[in-house]
Design brief:
The protein is an alpha/beta fold. The chain is about 50% helix and about 15% strand.
Length: about 725
């Protein structure tokens, strides 16, 4: 604490105030254990991730992105799911987030999370302190935490205590080892050829310690254990000492899986990275190679694995699946034939097929049947659709037989039946979800619930063609996160929490200083806008109508001002703000009265005149003022009425609102999936039709006609001597073409 005081202020009073403010902030974080999860721990990891995102390369010292941790955790947890006690170890632990995520994933399958023991080793002392703090703050038993501040490669985990070498001898073999070591770091391999960690496989080159970390982790693995390590892509194909180690690992069947990750997924580096999964003892000799480099979402400067990407990778790895352009089980003989080069594109081609152009169709028109075959999955799902859209002339080319593809596809009986079957599957899922979430909301296991729901959803979607279950999973995950938060509150505080309304605190500037003040109320679980939609729709509609009218008036006033000529703006200068972009209501009202009085004397103004427009603006401004006052009054009344409604809800009404908040939006998104599929088919067919719509012959004819017309116009042009010579030469060129 004393070491870091200087960073909190340059004087003792400022340091004291900073610490006091921090303690007051932490005081508001619930830590009484009734939340069912470690709130402070989540806050801590959130802050670390935000710091990592802005810390550049420095971030790699202590933080593995949460999504990568979750992916590794799911793979490790699946392997260890049936064990009663588990020991896990991170040899370059950083903040400890990787260990914690694995522990959480494993705990889903175990009776007690206290049966997991955590081992961690970290070189840098400040980062090592992050590990210890993170583990302690997550409520892990102190007896289950064994941490060590040391150089993993130079000073391996001690086999014994010098004071009692016989009774403390422990080579430290564990059920799971994970790490995200510093990439391609220099190390000193001198005098390590007899080190038990490296003697079987060889020494990594001094310029790159990647395989040294890998062999260290593998050495500490139990015979039935599993390890996962993040490394740069180069370890798959670099030669020399690394090539020899790679050969030995493959020949001894230790390497189980290679996962190619998207680039730019780790903080501070854009290089492609991989996850290697290894086992100490295997019965198989093949290697599963997964190219997951194309599945991600862009988030700021970095790429991020989505929930659906993680789920697909984990399912592929745990199921040892071969999927087109994504993964393949590669026999050892093929790897041997490639001289132990494991570069992913050698085994899995995930690239999109290059676009080709059919020469005949480009010259004469028609759509090549061969290019329609690229949509074979759609034709298999809708056997009669292709014939309904295209005319087959018995040649390798077809003609489009409908004017508009979108309605022709959407209204086809097979497509309509497909949509009905999808809707029925979603309705079956809806019935199950209602019973699961609404019926068991106070007792279900929140950490496991998303997996349970995904299995139920997949089971209902399985008979349907075309539907990508991972897109459905992403929909589920997007909606699950806020549902999980509500469930945490209800299980922690009881069902009555749904009827609780809290002050809505916002930050405002008061007397020149920022302060937190109350701005109305908010439902702890049930949002005001949802309750208003269900229980106060007439008042809400009336308020929305006034708000719509207010928007119309604002737009009309802006349009009128933009329509003023420069002369009219000068005339209206005293009616406008200093910037000249808004009217001054009082000045316009006064001017309008003068103009109306003048109209009574001299007669009506022209409807398009400046005077009429000023009078109209004055009327709008007056209506705007009245509307704003009415909206403010009615909104405040509706707000208080909604507060009273939430506090007086019956149990049945709470269930109705929770269904509207949790289940209805999820079902609407799932119902959109078949529409997205048919829209995709429509876009692809429209692109194909457009591609060959204009033939080369037609284009050449059009060019010739244009050139002929241009040559004719040149004859009629008059110019000076030199321009005429230039036009004559252009005419000769056109005639030559």
């Amino acid at each position: 604490m004393e070491t870091g005081l200087s960073k909190l202020g340059d004087t003792a009073p400022r340091q004291t105030k900073a610490i006091s403010d921090l303690l007051q902030l932490i005081k508001d974080i619930p830590m009484d254990g009734r939340q069912g999860y470690d709130v402070l721990g989540f806050v801590y990891e959130y802050l670390i991730s935000k710091f990592a995102a802005n810390a550049g390369k420095k971030a790699g010292e202590f933080y593995t992105p949460h999504e990568v941790s979750v992916l590794m955790s799911e793979i490790i947890a699946h392997h260890l799911r049936d064990r009663e006690t588990i020991q896990i170890y991170d040899s370059t632990s950083g903040s400890g987030s990787l260990l914690l995520n694995i522990g959480q994933s494993i705990a889903k399958h175990m009776g007690s999370p206290d049966n997991i023991k955590y081992y961690a080793q970290e070189l840098k002392e400040p980062t090592y302190n992050l590990t210890r703090m993170n583990l302690v703050m997550r409520g892990i038993l102190p007896t289950n935490i064994v941490t060590r501040n040391a150089d993993t490669l130079e000073d391996d985990w001690p086999f014994f205590d010098d004071q009692d070498p016989v009774n403390t001898y422990n080579p430290l073999y564990l059920d799971a080892v994970v790490s995200n070591p510093p990439y391609s770091q220099k190390w000193d391999p001198q005098h390590k050829e007899n080190d038990a960690r490296f003697s079987r496989f060889g020494l990594a080159p001094k310029s790159k310690a990647d395989y040294a970390f890998l062999l260290h982790d593998l050495y500490h693995l139990k015979p039935n254990g599993i390890m996962a390590i993040v490394l740069p892509h180069g370890v798959l194909f670099r030669g020399g000492e690394e090539g020899a180690i790679r050969r030995n690992l493959i020949e001894n069947d230790h390497l189980e899986t290679i996962i190619g990750l998207p680039p730019n997924i780790f903080f501070g580096t854009g290089i492609p990275t991989i996850i290697l999964v290894l086992r100490q003892r295997r019965t198989a000799s093949d290697v599963l190679i997964v190219d997951a480099s194309k599945g991600f979402a862009k988030e700021g400067k970095n790429n991020k694995l989505r929930a659906s990407d993680i789920k697909k990778i984990a399912d592929t790895v745990t199921g040892r699946l071969t999927l087109p352009r994504y993964s393949r089980l590669v026999p050892k003989t093929e790897i041997q034939a490639n001289d132990y080069n494991l570069n992913i594109p050698r085994y899995v081609d995930s690239s999109e097929p290059a676009e080709s152009w059919d020469l005949y169709a480009s010259m004469f028109g028609g759509i090549p049947v061969s290019e329609l075959e690229a949509l074979a999955d759609f034709w298999k799902a809708f056997p009669g659709l292709r014939a309904a859209l295209f005319t087959d002339n018995g040649t390798p080319y077809v003609e489009l037989s409908v004017q508009n593809l979108s309605p022709a596809i959407g209204e086809h009986p097979e497509v309509a039946q497909f949509r009905k079957e999808c809707a029925d599957a979603v309705l079956q899922f809806a019935d199950w979800v209602q019973g699961e979430l609404l019926g068991k909301m106070l007792t279900l296991e929140i950490p496991r619930q998303e997996a349970v729901m995904s299995e139920a959803l997949f089971a209902r979607l399985a008979p349907l063609p075309l539907v990508d279950k991972y897109k459905a999973y992403q929909v589920l995950d997007d909606h699950w996160q806020p549902i999980a938060v509500d469930l945490e509150i209800l299980q922690t505080e009881g069902f009555a929490a749904a009827r609780v309304v809290d002050p809505n605190m916002v930050e405002k500037t008061v007397k020149g200083e920022k302060a937190e003040v109350q701005d109305g109320w908010k439902g702890r679980v049930l949002p005001f806008d949802l309750v208003q939609t269900v229980h106060h729709l007439p008042e809400l509609d009336a308020l929305r109508q006034k708000e719509t009218r207010l928007s119309e008036i604002t737009a009309s006033i802006e349009e009128t001002l933009e329509g003023f000529s420069e002369e009219e703006k000068e005339t209206a200068a005293e009616l406008l703000s200093e910037e000249g972009d808004t009217f001054i209501a009082a000045a316009v009202a006064k001017e309008a009265k003068t103009l109306e009085a003048e109209a009574k004397k001299v007669g009506k103004f022209d409807p398009e005149s400046y005077e009429v427009r000023i009078i109209q603006v004055a009327a709008w401004l007056a209506e705007e003022k009245t509307l704003k006052a009415a909206i403010k009054k009615e909104a405040a009344a509706l707000h208080l009425k909604t507060k009273a409604t939430i506090e007086g809800l019956s149990d049945a009404q709470v269930h109705e609102l929770l269904e509207a908040k949790w289940i209805s939006p999820l079902l609407r998104s799932l119902h959109d999936l078949p529409t997205q599929l048919t829209d995709e088919l429509t876009r692809k067919l429209e692109a194909l039709a457009e591609k060959y719509r204009l033939t080369f012959a037609a284009t050449a004819h059009e060019i010739a006609q244009t050139e002929k017309a241009l040559a004719g116009m040149i004859k009629e042009l008059d110019a000076n001597e030199f321009d005429l010579k230039g036009l004559a030469e252009l005419k000769n060129l056109l005639a030559g073409n």
